[in-house]
Amino acid sequence: MNAFIRSFASEWLKRKRSLAAWLVVCGAFFTPAIIFTAKLIRHGHLAAESAQPTYWQHLWKSAWESMAIFLLPLGVILATSLITQLEYKNNSWKLLHTTPQRYSVIFGAKLAVVLVMMGQFLLLFNVGIYLAGVLPGLLLGVPYPAAPIPYAAFLSDDGRYLVACLPIVALQYLISLRFRNFLVPVGGGLALWILSVAVLSWQYGYLIPYTYCSFTFLQGQPRFAQPVALLPWAVGYFLLFTGAAYGLYVQQREKG
């Protein structure tokens, strides 16, 4: 456990030299910033909106609309590829493998950094939604929203989106470990994301794991209903891709 913690701390420091750290912060506040700006422009509606009992639910849905279908999958594709490819970029795989660390520790620490960054992204995104909901009113003298924040429902949604992202993380991790060229994992991820958007109305769209973020947002709409529970499939794909990634990583003759 101590070896894993030290390896994780080392990988966490490396992320500061990657655009992935900025991607998390900028991506998390991008949609809330647009909502904040729109509320300031349409300030005449602020008082009426703040008095609605479903104010926070409406704000939450508005924030997740573009995030779930567009920004979150693309952000995961880019961040996972950037973090995993740091060793290729710095030509430091051989140096890393001379350290007294098992392959399983190196593999797990890098993957853990990506997963923690996902949690960091969701936390910042939640903070951004809250600020977008209250700051315009505070700046313009509109009373604080009367409706209570449904914390339990929002945390439950966060958990579902986190699980829905896991297959994307695992497959991007696999491809990024396997190929030296950064364009391969990014290009492959973008192609699969485009495919996922194209099959959202397909009855068997759940077979494409990149659809799960979109389906999580679109749940309840008959047009996009799927015949299976998506979250168990997401976990299954994550375990399958992670196991395959580890097997390929360990058996690869030239690691970097």
TrEMBL record:
Keyword presence, Zinc-finger: no
Residues in coiled coil: none
Top-rank taxon, per record: Bacteria
One Pfam family in the UniProt entry: ABC2_membrane_4
Transmembrane segments: 20-41, 62-83, 129-147, 159-175, 182-204, 224-249
Keywords, in A-Z order: Membrane, Transmembrane, Transmembrane helix
Entry protein name: ABC transporter permease
